[in-house]
Amino acid sequence: MEGNIVAAFTRFYKRMKRHPVQYTRMAVQIVFTLFLLFVGLRFYQFYEHFNSLGAEPFVPRPSAVEGFLPISALVALKVWITTGIFDPIHPAGLALFAFFVASGFVFRKAFCGWMCPIGTLSEWIGRLGKKLFKRNFDVPKWLGWLLKPIKYLILLFFIKFIVIDMPAFYAIDFMAGDYNKISDVKMMLFFLHMGGLGLKVILVLVILSLFVKNFWCRFLCPYGAMIGIGSVFGITKIKRNEETCIDCNACTRVCPQRIAVAKVKAVRTPDCSACMSCVEVCPVKDTLNMTVAGKKVNKWAVPAAFFAAFFLAVVIAKATGHWNTMISYEEFRILIPNVYNIGH
Question: Fewer CB within 10 Å, N- or C-terminus of the chain?
Fold first, then answer.
């Protein structure tokens, strides 16, 4: 028994030594997932205090929950751009949304590859599928071309409806309205008391992700699509040295987004999540490299810089008063018990 444990640990250590970035990424994903579960628990306790009319103890509202309100943040972004008013209702949501969208220009979709809880869940389900079926499947190339535009069409719908068509005064009214003030509570209750249709949709996505790794991220996620568009015009790219490449195809096989890295000179696709899997798995030194403004950088540079920028953005948001909501305790005391009576 002891020998088996030592052997397993030795194998794990050797794999970790060969792929330190990927094991670090996995650890970061686990830490952020646990943190967000803690945020969810604290937010539920915050809700229960008001829902029980004060019978349950008060827990401060965690502002990080606003990161799960991208539609509200998009409305707030429109208001900020058109009027200069920074959302006082969900300021952390706007700060996070603005940072993640802007980060695509410099760090590609590092948010998706390193931090996003939905991306993490989708990736882990894919790994489970590989263990169950001994492989990950993929959709036929023609079907992939048909599915890929879906996330951009969803994004286009929200951009047209909110950014283009919605008048600024209506966006301001929505932002300041009671529905938006407790949209985080409504979101939580939706997932806690999900109906049959919602459960069926999630079940279908889980099954698809078991067979096709990262199905949601690759074909359906509009948030990732928005960040990815910025990355196309950004300064960060993975480049392949065609002269030293031995065409082993390891980079393409390991890519969670199924990008054909081995067939391109530079990865310009908006799907790249800067996970660094391809760079780390390449057996030939300096054949695959991450580049910033055309210059080669260390494989740790982009993810490390992304997290440094993220934490700096959070510190700045807090220091400038753009993190905690202006909604008072008294207002929550009135709104939350009436959550089911408040509509758009």
Answer: N
